Amino acid sequence: MTAGEEMHALVERLYPLCRSITGDGVRRTLEIVSEYLPLETFEVPTGTEVFDWTVPQEWNIRDAYIADASGRRVVDFRESNLHVVGYSTPVDARMTLEQLRPHLHTLPEQPSLVPYRTSYYSPSWGFCLAQEALDRLPDGEYDVRIDSTVDDGQLTYAEHVVPGQVTDEVIVSCHTCHPSLANDNLAGIAVAAFLARELKNPWYTYRFLFMPGTIGAITWLSRNAERIDKVKHGLVLACAGDSGQLTYKKSRRGDAEIDRVLQYVLRGRTHEVVEFSPYGYDERQFCSPGFNLGVGSLSRTPYARYPEYHTSGDNPAFVLPEAMEDTLAVCRDAFAVLDRNRRYLNLSPYGEPQLGKRGLYDSLGGRSDAKQAQLAMLWVLNLADGEHSLLDVAERSGLPFDSVAGAAHALHRAELIKE
Ligand SMILES: [Zn+2]
After folding, report:
1. What is the per-residue pLDDT across 30-54, written as a single tens digit (0 to 9) for each?
2. Where is the Cytochrome c domain (predicted)?
């Protein structure tokens, strides 16, 4: 199996689980992810104050349906968890269709699709169904049942840390709070898990965060506020698997190193770069003014810009193995640049140092890219003034970052430059 196929298989496994911002669906999701990647799971009790928010009660659901007079389920949670509004309070009643209508949500413009709806912070209940299905329901009485609980419990999130050579951190976050939606949630989880598995002995410490959107990120920030200055860079992954082109949304700063790295890596691919806005995924929290972290967001087609968004159309068939593999490749390339992007100081800045006597020409003997490597050394030496990073060198010289980083490595070993 290719990595793309493996990620897709993970999406398919996670798809049926009923996730929300809390509850057993999230726990089960993290358990499955932990088969791929060791996770440390955290449980934060209901009522915990996290900045301006409070960790809510925990929601769990076992079953839900609307059944007609013959007992046939006309709307059935067992078929799709999207049929129940997230955080629905329990119900057990017999109602006429007219009484039921205010609790039914459809998409009249997309009559064959079931919408995704939640009501986290105002207690209510409801069902979501295709407009076509609603139109077929005859008047009459229905048994309405939602077997759910909303009780004091926990908010669950998880981390996986890849220790680096330095304690400065890169965070990669994805949300875990959407139920049966494949692109908006699961593709990001799969790409993050596979990315984390690939990182071996990186420069930075990489912290992968699997947590519910908004309240999860706010909870994490609140619990990590003391050490947040360790976080130097970050990327929020979402909508990582549809067939659309890649989209990078810049951090609030707009010129953070992660912004430059992603734009550099995306050159040569069809892509779009968009400016920061305080809407979208958890970049909203990481880039809130009190933190203003260098965190951007990578997606394919952004939220709300594809018709399947937040509907039953966002199913595993909507997510392509090749698309997830492509997103993974961009993350891999970006972190390979970020990890080696440093500023150096030329220790022999008066005229060019003599490379030949240090074996720096010999060491290149026979390599077909020797000329490029020599040029890269000259560029690094020239721009090693403590101001320019290796990414600056790559951009200004037009040379591949790999060659520039290789030249810096050789020059550093020859003690011609220092960090
Ligand atoms: Zn969403």
Report:
1. 999 999 999 999 999 999 999 999 9
2. 148-269
Q: Which residues are annotated as a binding site?
A: 178, 184, 310
3-class state of residue 358 by DSSP: helix
Based on the fold, state whether residues 128 and 245 are members of the same structural domain: no
Q: How confident is the model at residue 363 (pLDDT cuts 50, 70, 90)?
A: low
User: Assign residue 215 a region: left if phi > 0, alpha if psi is -120 to 50, beta otherwise?
Assistant: alpha
Ligand 1 midpoint to CA 74 (Å): 26
Spell out which residues have Cβ within 5 A of ligand 1, the ion.
184
Whole-number Å distance, alpha carbon 174 to ligand 1 midpoint, is: 11
Burial of 195 (0-12, 13-18, 19+ CB in 10 A): buried
Binding-site residues for Zn(2+)? 178, 184, 310
Average pLDDT over residues 5-29: 98
Checking if the pLDDT of 414 tops 80, the result is yes
Q: What is the pLDDT of residues 148-163, one digit of tens each?
A: 999 999 999 999 999 9
CATH code of residue 89:
3.50.30.90
By CB neighbour count within 10 A (0-12 exposed, 13-18 middle, 19+ buried), where does 236 fall? buried
308 and 198 part of one domain: yes
Q: How far is the CA of 297 from the centre of ligand 1 (A)?
A: 14
Q: Please tell me the pTM assigned to this model.
A: 0.95
Ligand 1 centroid, distance to 132 Cα (angstroms): 24
Domain count, the chain: 3
> pLDDT for 70-123, tens place per residue?
999 999 999 999 999 999 999 999 999 999 999 999 999 999 999 999 999 999
Say how many Å lie between the CA of residue 184 and the centre of ligand 1.
5
Q: What angle do CA 224, 39, 17 make, to 5 degrees?
A: 105
112 phi/psi in degrees, rounded to 5: -95, -5
The domain in which residue 237 lies consists of 3-56+154-339
Q: Can you give the CATH number for the domain in which 173 is found? A: 3.40.630.10
